[in-house]
Amino acid sequence: MSRTDPGTPPRPYAQGASAPLDDVRVVDLSRLVAGNMLSLMLADFGAEVVKVEQRKRGDTLRDWKDGGHPLYWKVYARNKKSITLDYKKPAGKEVLMRLAAQADVLIESFRPGVMERLGLGPEELHAVNPRLVYVRVSGWGQTGPYRNRPGFGSLVEAMSGFASKTGFADKPPILPNMALADMVAGLQGAYAVMVALRAAAAGGAGQVVDVSLLEPLFSTLGPDVAIARVTGRAPSRVGNRTSISSPRNIYPTKDGAWVALSASTQGMCERLFRAIGRPDMIEDPRFRSNSDRLDNADQVDAVVGAFIQAMDLDAAIRFFEAAEVTVGPVYDAAQIVHDPHVIGREVVVEMEDRDLGALPMHAVSPRLSGTPGVIRSPAPDLGQHLDEILERIGYDAAARRRLAEEDVT
């Protein structure tokens, strides 16, 4: 069992279970996070995702190991199949063309122009499959002066404006300690694929989906550029606060834990002040309106923080929940799996794992009442489904042996 297992026995994979995208075939040439997040969203809802991996080494995500195990791969390659293929060779290119001819979606994450140089660009693949949705994931997109720059998410998180507004005013800008730009791009990319598939089903024509890492993350920043234009200043770093409402912060408790509190409406703020025994603050001109509280946020935090710090975490949560004030605990990854809501809603599922016994991972999300997604298979071994896929696209046993002997597969 995993170290974070809260006691739930591991469940087997639901092999053979039906899912709403069972008739969708995806060829995934992408590497690392964004493409794998995109194809995971499709695979979790039933699409057959065939990872076309580099011979011997495989997807770079396999190299990201924790505790000696490729946990990123185990989580983000669930529900997928794997083949190995050198499609720079003529015989390998022919295999890929056959795969694309039978696919609904192809995903690639090379720099712009690489697939064209291989003779596998949209024009060539649409010639063999006019309904193919051709997804191009890159750092900066297929157009613009930065199109050929390296597209790592950290650069995008910096340039997008995300880092400049993250952190505290007296500290440097902060990059997220996770692949945030890639994750957001993968989620938007999956949405775009579904739109393109619907258009193809209606009109019979495929198209190119241009997914940069930059624009999806930039879009999550909302009206920041409008604020900068209208006010003459860009939103600044305000720590855990926000320029929208006060109070809103993370406060320490007596036992060394932390509570997140947000009273983002006037009614909630007044309820908070009454709950902590400070109804006088409701009519105090320094705190009467949200604008007043933003101007005096340090004083608001001092009062709220002192009240919270006198209690342990559990007592603070119980107190504010009874008062119907919006608070929540600050968890780390080892703590969240023990939360009763996370357990009751099965936000984390414990899946069988041959190496670890059990492997906790996020459940399929979002949840559909009539056509839910399902976790049907673990992340594949490198090339595990090679014979199955090659046979389906017309390669008999002798032809498969020749591909192997020529170091194509």
TrEMBL record:
<keyword id="KW-0808">Transferase</keyword>
<dbReference type="InterPro" id="IPR044855">
    <property type="entry name" value="CoA-Trfase_III_dom3_sf"/>
</dbReference>
<dbReference type="InterPro" id="IPR050509">
    <property type="entry name" value="CoA-transferase_III"/>
</dbReference>
<dbReference type="Pfam" id="PF02515">
    <property type="entry name" value="CoA_transf_3"/>
</dbReference>
<dbReference type="InterPro" id="IPR003673">
    <property type="entry name" value="CoA-Trfase_fam_III"/>
</dbReference>
<dbReference type="InterPro" id="IPR023606">
    <property type="entry name" value="CoA-Trfase_III_dom_1_sf"/>
</dbReference>
<protein>
    <submittedName>
        <fullName>Succinyl-CoA--L-malate CoA-transferase beta subunit</fullName>
    </submittedName>
</protein>
